[in-house]
């Protein structure tokens, strides 16, 4: 199969557990593209895990780092940028992402998300919220922001990773 060279970046956004990192890894491998995992880069630079950054410095501090990194990454092309689920919370990030590349929104039902995150303790935002009601409520609060940022919306429910990536590559 042919690989693509994109004259822009592919920016993956979406709620926690919608598959951004998995899709990034798969696309990176099959399309020979460099991946930037924003959370990983932030944790690396801070020398701390994401939960520790939230606990010790607070969410606003984390959001500042996130916005700053996003700005810094704007010049490259043909990269995959896998964003943290809350990247759309700051309006300026939405503007910045649109400059950086094509924004691909991954979606999943609250049930699917719960299934994917239930054994995971690395997401401070979901601490004590591991149930479909709380997940659905948080998704509703963020929905308009995700949609405002997205150039393309891809549902990941009941699909294999290769199906999801095939869809992205044909539609982007
Ligand atoms: C967050 C999502 C996380 C991470 C942080 C905050 C959020 O990324 O950036 O815990 O507010 O949705 P993932 O979407 O990769 O879990």
TrEMBL record:
Name the Gene Ontology biological process terms.
Answer: amino acid biosynthetic process; aromatic amino acid family biosynthetic process; chorismate biosynthetic process
The portions of this protein that span the membrane are 8-28
Binding annotation for substrate:
39, 63, 85, 142
* Gene3D superfamilies for this protein: P-loop containing nucleotide triphosphate hydrolases (3.40.50.300)
EC number(s) on file: 2.7.1.71
- Sequence positions that bind ATP: 17-22, 123
Q: Which PANTHER family match?
A: SHIKIMATE KINASE (PTHR21087), SHIKIMATE KINASE 1, CHLOROPLASTIC (PTHR21087:SF16)
Q: What is this protein called?
A: Shikimate kinase
């Amino acid at each position: 199969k042919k690989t693509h060279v994109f004259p822009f970046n592919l920016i993956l956004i979406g709620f926690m557990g919608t598959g951004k990192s998995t899709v990034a890894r798969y696309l990176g491998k099959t399309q020979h593209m460099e991946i930037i995992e924003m959370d990983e880069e932030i944790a690396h630079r801070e020398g701390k895990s994401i939960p520790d950054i939230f606990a010790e410095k607070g969410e606003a501090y984390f959001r500042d780092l996130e916005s700053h990194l996003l700005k810094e990454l704007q010049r490259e092309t043909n990269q995959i940028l896998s964003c943290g689920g809350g990247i759309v919370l700051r309006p300026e990030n939405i503007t910045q992402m649109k400059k950086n590349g094509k924004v691909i929104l991954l979606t999943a039902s609250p049930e699917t998300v719960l299934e994917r995150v239930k054994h995971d303790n690395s997401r401070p935002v979901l601490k004590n919220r591991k149930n479909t009601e709380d997940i659905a409520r948080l998704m509703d609060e963020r929905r308009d922001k995700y949609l405002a940022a997205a150039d393309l919306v891809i549902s990941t429910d009941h699909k294999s990773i290769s199906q999801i990536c095939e869809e992205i590559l044909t539609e982007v």
